[in-house]
UniProtKB/TrEMBL annotation:
This is Pyrroline-5-carboxylate reductase. GO terms for molecular function: pyrroline-5-carboxylate reductase activity. The keyword Chaperone does not apply. Its EC number is 1.5.1.2. The keyword Transferase does not apply. The gene is proC.
Length: 278
């Protein structure tokens, strides 16, 4: 018995690392036909041989953003923030009534999109993170003023093909980006620094990397599998008057809470600068 065709078409305009990850997830789920565009042949070739994806290079087909948007029910905009207004002006006349446009661009508001697109088009703003590449993303999703509950459900379903989704009001989306959006970089920095400490204690770089990376991977897996609060899992490792307790005391003396507060505040300030065009 033949399988039914996907019910709708998704166009990913600017299918780089993040847009490409979403394109892969949606195509693999079989829930939609996917069209992907990139500026260069080289970038387009990365997705060209994947089942369910039609991948185009703008240097070969300059009209492909407009043509892809005209064909799609859902359009994901993955170009750099500064390029968004020009792209929206290009595709606006070709969009179908009832189409949904989803921003992947940091700092660009739904109001900016709605001002440049027809009133018949719904807009949502998303903030995925790089674990989308392995289908373990956290995606923040905020609806614009014209998005219906059905629009939100459809877009949520797309992002759930590459992880979990948290729906928030738009005024929270930049703050969410400082936590889950930038969060993988914070984890990698911790891994780098702990590996450096391991090397300082005589381990080879290879040993240090194995020790630290597998510890982070294992700790995350245990957190997920156990369903325990991280505080309880930390307590289980931290024996009274033991070595871990002594190490934790040093880290707590450094006031990590305040440090992360300042770091995420800095990220939020930069997001607002991007929104203002600076």
């Amino acid at each position: 018995m033949a399988s039914s065709a996907p019910s709708f078409v998704v166009a990913v305009l600017g299918a780089g690392s993040m847009g490409g990850a979403i394109a892969r997830g949606v195509a693999a789920s079989g829930s939609a036909d996917v069209i992907a565009t990139n500026r260069s042949r080289q970038k387009a070739a990365v997705l060209a041989d994947l089942p369910g994806i039609r991948s185009y290079a703008l240097e070969v087909s300059p009209e492909r953003n407009r043509l892809s948007a005209a064909e799609a029910d859902v359009i994901l905009v993955g170009v750099k923030p500064a390029m968004v207004p020009d792209l929206l002006r290009e595709i606006a006349p070709s969009l179908r009534p009832g189409a949904i446009v989803v921003s992947l661009a940091a700092g660009v508001t739904t109001a900016t999109y709605e001002a440049l697109l027809p009133e018949s088009v719904a807009v949502l703003r998303s903030m995925p993170n790089t674990p989308a590449l392995v289908s373990r993303a956290v995606t923040g999703l905020a609806a614009g003023s014209r998005a219906s509950e059905a629009d939100r459900a459809r877009v949520r379903g797309l992002f759930e093909t590459v992880g979990v989704v948290v729906e928030v009001d738009e005024e929270q989306i930049d703050a969410l980006g400082t936590i889950s959006g930038s969060g993988p970089a914070y984890v990698y920095l911790l891994i780098e620094e702990l590996a450096r400490a391991a090397e300082g204690k005589g381990f080879t770089p290879e040993q240090a990397r194995l020790l630290v990376e597998q510890t982070f991977i294992g700790a995350g897996a245990l957190l997920e599998a156990s369903g325990e609060d991280p505080r309880e899992l930390r307590r289980q490792v931290t024996s009274p008057k033991g070595t871990t307790e002594r190490a934790i005391a040093v880290l707590q003396d450094a006031d990590l809470g305040a440090l992360f507060g300042r770091a995420t505040d800095a990220a939020l300030a930069r997001s607002r600068e991007l929104a203002a065009g600076s």
